[in-house]
Amino acid sequence: MTFATPAVLGGLVAVTMTASGAFAQDARTTADLPIAVQMYTLRDHGTLDEQFAAVQAAGITAVETVGMQDSTAEDLSAMMAEYGVEAISTHAQLDDLRADAQAVIDFNKAIGNDVITVPYLAEEARPTDAAGWTALGEELAALSETLQAEDMTLAYHNHDFEMVEFDGRTALEIMMEAAGEDVMAELDLAWVARGGLDPVEYLGRFDGRVFAIHAKDNAPEGEAEDERGFKALGEGTLDWDAILPAAEEAGAQWYIIEHDQPIDAAEVVMTGATFLTENLPDSATR
Q1: Which domains does the chain have, with CATH numbers?
Q2: Tell me: the pLDDT tens digits for 151-186?
Q3: 135 touches 141 (CB < 8 A)
Q4: What pLDDT, on the 0 to 100 scale, is given for residue 216?
Q5: DSSP code at position 251
Q6: What is the number of H-type helices and E-type strands within the chain?
Q7: Which is it for the CA torsion 128, 212, 87, 269, positive or negative?
Q8: Which of 270 and 14 is assigned the larger pLDDT?
Q9: Structure pTM?
Q10: In terms of domain of life, where is this protein from (predicted)?
């Protein structure tokens, strides 16, 4: 016989009576799992206080920040402590790293974060050939050395434009090869699918180099146009039954909930937390 208790920190806990009459906990909570939120999802959800409150309400205890969150390191650290969350990565623009990498390093050290992720390339900054992507990878390798000297890690987050192929290899693969194995991949699988590739197969190309996946979904064609065609996790077209085990196999350390333009950001975060808590493989641990 199973008795369901109230949700604890947004994660369901089941208590099961064994044959001997003893009770055993049968499920993990959201907070037990490597689940985080990209704060960009919540950028229009009121104040920063309200955004962290939405994270807390979903039972999530880790976030990926956006730059400096329009805050000081001291204030941001205090707010994260208040809401019981930690920073596991930040999205830092490549131009900011080029201009003053030490400032980015110092701010993130102050908030307890040690992963710096390059999130996006403006159209004019995107290489147009394999040689250009190789050169960008070499630049990332140099930045990675700077971060490693400070006990930090560099990662790169893709969109669909890195799925363009040159002689059978995607731009992302060319760049990451030149960057070296210390630069990690943060694979946004909704964008991988939009780029025409199979997320499950593509994860295998980065085996051992996947810091995280951005967990979000694509709507069926023609739907959710007011949300840039994205859906809450598990409500779209991606095959998560196949993706989540593949991500684990590739060594993903974190599953980061994201939506580029949600109508109800707090609901998207809650839905994502519930979906991942119920569906992450047993091997997914923090």
Answers
A1: 30-279 (3.20.20.150)
A2: 999 999 999 999 999 999 999 999 999 999 999 999
A3: no
A4: 95
A5: T
A6: 9, 15
A7: positive
A8: 270
A9: 0.91
A10: Bacteria
